[in-house]
Amino acid sequence: QVQLVESGGGLVQAGGSLRLSCAASGRTYIRNAMAWFRQAPGLEREFVAGISWGGGNTYYGDFVKGRFTISRDNGKSTVYLQMNSLKPEDTAVYFCAAGPKETIYREYYNYWGQGTQVTVSS
Fold this sequence. Notes:
- The chain is an all-beta fold.
- 0% of the residues lie in helices and 51% in strands.
- The strands form two sheets. Strands 2, 4, 5, 6, 9, 10 and 11 form a seven-stranded mixed sheet that branches. The chain has a four-stranded antiparallel sheet with strand order 1-3-8-7, with no helix packed on it.
- Strand 7 (68-73) and strand 8 form a beta hairpin.
- The radius of gyration is 13 Å and the shape is globular.
- The mean pLDDT is 91.
């Protein structure tokens, strides 16, 4: 069982930066791959970035590659998403997710946080 809590969202101007955090708890959290997804109103939840807790491998969605960086600190049981050069189209609720395998498909993630709102003004 894994519990996830996101934080760090807010309002930022285009071109600015935000750092999201996902605090994980539970006896098996270290065995899970972690990922960030985002969802805007009326749209499907889309993959943003993923990371393996075991090997530290990272992978990104095409639209955020080069601007966002996912990282982990297993000592703090926390995953981060550093978001730079933010654009208005990045506006969405950002969700942290955990699952048994590294994948970009949301159907394979077993645990989800409640989300944190990111709003980018033009």
